[in-house]
Amino acid sequence: MTLQPERVREMFDRISPSYDRMNMLMSMGRDGRWRRRAVRASRVGPGGEALDVCCGTGDLAIELRRVAGPSGRVVGLDFSPQMLAVAARKCPAVEWVQGDALALPFADGAFDAVTVGFGVRNLADLDRGLREMARVLKPGGRLVILEITQPTRPPLSVFFSLWFDRVVPLLGAFSSNREAYSYLPESVRSFPSPLGLAEAMDRAGFERIRYTVLAGGIIAIHSGIRG
Asked: Are the beta carbons of 97 and 74 closer than 8 angstroms?
């Protein structure tokens, strides 16, 4: 299932009220742990300036804000106004910005770190999005990407296929958003492998690229440094 960007935005607007609950169900309660690990990988500390792209309902940006502290600056950007409305109710201390990840509305070298949590696979042009993230990073700044990936070895590959191809669409049906939760497994299948994403980061000019595969191959955390 391939959707135009406007359709994807409308879809995320529709699912915004149930997004957090569905994430918890689909990850069996482990999504918060993965986000905290991604924040640690960003190396944001007190006073740091960070941008969370495709921020959704804001949980990763809020965790960044916690570690950056009152002297830091955290911006959460998303193209869905309804997602941002949910995020803003959770944490007014984050700067919530509606915008396009392919044309980030920030100056060159504005941030110490850029993160993306479960959103980079929704970009219409992955290479362009990664170049934009590199542009807004300071030299030596760090990009961290947390994303679902597809395990290749049984038995987990069998479980993954059953869960994402059968159970997740059923959850979407119960939430009255069948299209959104049919789109999710298709977007994961069509997204590059962890190695493929690392190669895309290299093309965008990142250095010292690393990735760690978690949860038996279902989750990957990538990091890279802007040269």
From this structure: no
The rounded Cα 2 to chain-centroid distance in angstroms is 19
Number of domains in the chain: 1
Report whether 141 contacts 226 (CB < 8 A). yes
Buried b (16+ CB within 10 A) or exposed e, 170-197: ebbeebebebbbbbbbebbeebeebeeb
The amino acid sitting at 10 is E
Is 212 part of any domain? yes
Which of 6 and 86 is assigned the larger pLDDT? 86
Name the band, by pLDDT with cuts 50, 70 and 90, for residue 226. Answer: very high
What is the rounded distance in angstroms from the CA atom of residue 40 to the CA atom of residue 14? 31
pLDDT at 163 over 70: no
